[in-house]
Amino acid sequence: MPDSAQPLSERLDALEIRIAYQDETIETLNATITAQWQQIDALTRQIKAFHDRLQQAESNAPAAPANERPPHY
User: Fold this and answer.
1) Is the pTM of this model over 0.85?
2) Which residue has better confidence, 29 or 4?
3) How far apart (Å, rounded) are the C-alpha atoms in residues 49 and 36?
4) What is the CA radius of gyration of the chain?
5) SS3 assignment for 23-52
6) In angstroms, what CA-CA distances link 5 with 1, 8, 11, 12, 14?
7) Residues whose CB is less than 8 angstroms from the CB of residue 9 and which lie 6 or more positions away in sequence, other chains included
8) What are the transmembrane regions?
9) Do 15 and 7 touch, CB atoms closer than 8 A?
């Protein structure tokens, strides 16, 4: 291989290595984002379930008279 082609070959190798690392990083980030979205979805469902339970508990709670003084008065 001529001397003038050596730097080009080295540059090409460096670019290929760099792309390989970038591909690995992209895959890792994609997996992380996917896991985070799954966790967000699960937490959103959990919050909705808690909200529904709270609404149900509030609707089943006995209504307090509006003008009644608290017992400590």
Assistant:
1) no
2) 29
3) 20
4) 31
5) HHHHHHHHHHHHHHHHHHHHHHHHHHHHHH
6) 7, 5, 10, 10, 14
7) 1
8) none
9) no
